[in-house]
Amino acid sequence: MWYAIRARLARWIDRYFYIRISTKITLLYAAILFFVLILSTAILGVGAYIYFYRQAEVDLDRSIRHVMNNIESGHAAEAKFWFEGPVIPGVIVRITDDAGRVVLDTDAHFPSIETVENGRVSAPFWASPDMELSEFRNGAVYHAQRDIEYGGIPYHIHFFRTITTEKDFFNALQRLLFYTVAICFVLALIAGHFISTRILKPIRQITWTARSIEVERLGRRLDVPRARDELAELARTFNRMLDRLQEGFRQEQRFVSDASHELRTPLTVILGYSDMLSRWGREDRNILDEGITAIRSEAENMQQLIEKLLFLARADQKRQAVNKEDVNLAEMLADTMEKMQMVTTTHEVTLGANTPAIVSADPVLLRQLLRIFLENSLKYTPAGGHIHAFSARSQDGASVLVTLTDDGIGIAPEHQPHIFDRFYRVDSSRTKETGGSGLGLSIARWIAERHDIEITLTSEVDVGTSITLAIPLVKDSA
């Protein structure tokens, strides 16, 4: 039950909350700008608000101190003191007695005390506790009261500082900032959409190209932007990936074609001899022997080919085991050359200097590596030719160099870079005169790579071929 609800919720989210990257960038860009604008606007607004109210408070406070100091010193007894500017401009003084009658007023047009008292509101938290704030229809005012006694009669001195202008300015500033934030937010959305669309254009091109590419159309490539940025690097990486894929498909197709060709030949021979045996083999003993011999030979060729194909398949899938151990290379080379001398009577096989060396290798694979090169020398060296092997330490002493030479037909320079490719043959006609399937050297290269063996080829047509294997030594024997 719970799993079904989660699955349905996930499908609903995927369906209705899919957002493009460009939209995400636009929203993120707009949100950041909106936050910055709101923060700066709030700071500006609060700063302006505090400044204007604080200025009014300072004017009122200075006026109060000036009047009270003059009252204490006796200068306030003179009438001209009250009419020649006893306070800072903008501050109004009104004196009343206990009955509320106005004794002195510096601005008769200012609202009455009752109006001010009725409009009293809570002062801002940053205002002085001695100040009060009143608001009414036509404005706002800061005010404070001081009580004195003069001639035995108590009086109340009211100080007023209008802040109507400041309040109107602040309200206008608020509206301006609100409209500015709204307009900037809309502009940020438009600019963010435009910028994200331009930035992500190469990604959309990659998407379109990837959708249009199929196995038959791997030759298409992305246009790399001129700018040296991450998107240009992504385009180059994608093109390199396509190059590798195209090369991989090409090799796969060639591998399948070559394998089919190699298997078709022995199968054709087997079918041909089988048909001949079914017709005349029962009566003719010679035809029967010939057919059986040919079928067996082709079956053995097929078996060898299939074993090599399986070896390469396991190698490609990283399932071919490599069990390394310390191997006495000198003994292995001597044994391999001795067996080669026994199986051939048409070539002179010799072993020269054989330096003692211990290497870390899979003995089966290392022996197979040596045999592959020696068997190639036998195949491509005419009867009566010479095959020679020897080993020696490298100059740095870190490896042993095993050299296999022959005086065979050699390899032309244009073919040398490709001899380790699968099914590659110098003889493009693919005849069986020299035997082989073109897989041996591919296997040899794989074995060499797994053992960190460096292969060096030197060959000249009608002169011979020399293969040098640089095999790393075990450190204790180096």
Sequence-ordered SSE layout with sheet pairings:
Blueprint: H1 2-16, H2 21-73, H3 79-83, E1 91-97, E2 102-105, H4 113-118, E3 120-121, E4 132-136, E5 139-150, E6 153-162, H5 164-199, H6 201-212, H7 230-281, H8 285-316, E7 325-328, H9 329-343, E8 348-354, E9 358-361, H10 363-379, E10 386-393, E11 399-406, H11 440-450, E12 454-460, E13 464-472
Write out key terms for the chains shown.
five-stranded mixed beta sheet; alpha+beta; 11 helices; rod-shaped; Heat Shock Protein 90; six-stranded antiparallel beta sheet; 478 residues; 3 domains
Give a verbal description of the structure.
Helix 7 packs antiparallel against helix 8 (285-316), helix 8 packs parallel to helix 11 and helix 10 (363-379) packs antiparallel against helix 11. The protein is rod-shaped, with a radius of gyration of 51 Å. The chain has helices at residues 2-16, 21-73, 79-83, 113-118, 164-199, 201-212, 230-281, 285-316, 329-343, 363-379, 440-450; strands at 91-97, 102-105, 120-121, 132-136, 139-150, 153-162, 325-328, 348-354, 358-361, 386-393, 399-406, 454-460, 464-472. It starts with a helix and ends in a 6-residue tail after the last strand. It folds into three domains: 46-172, 2-Layer Sandwich (Beta-Lactamase); 237-316, Signal transduction histidine kinase, dimerisation/phosphotransfer (DHp) domain (Helix Hairpins, Orthogonal Bundle), CATH 1.10.287.130; 325-429 and 436-477, Histidine kinase-like ATPase, C-terminal domain (Heat Shock Protein 90, 2-Layer Sandwich), CATH 3.30.565. The strands form three sheets. A six-stranded antiparallel beta sheet has the order 2-1-6-5-4-3. With 478 residues, it is an alpha+beta fold. Strand 10 (386-393) and strand 11 form a beta hairpin. It contains eleven helices and 13 strands.
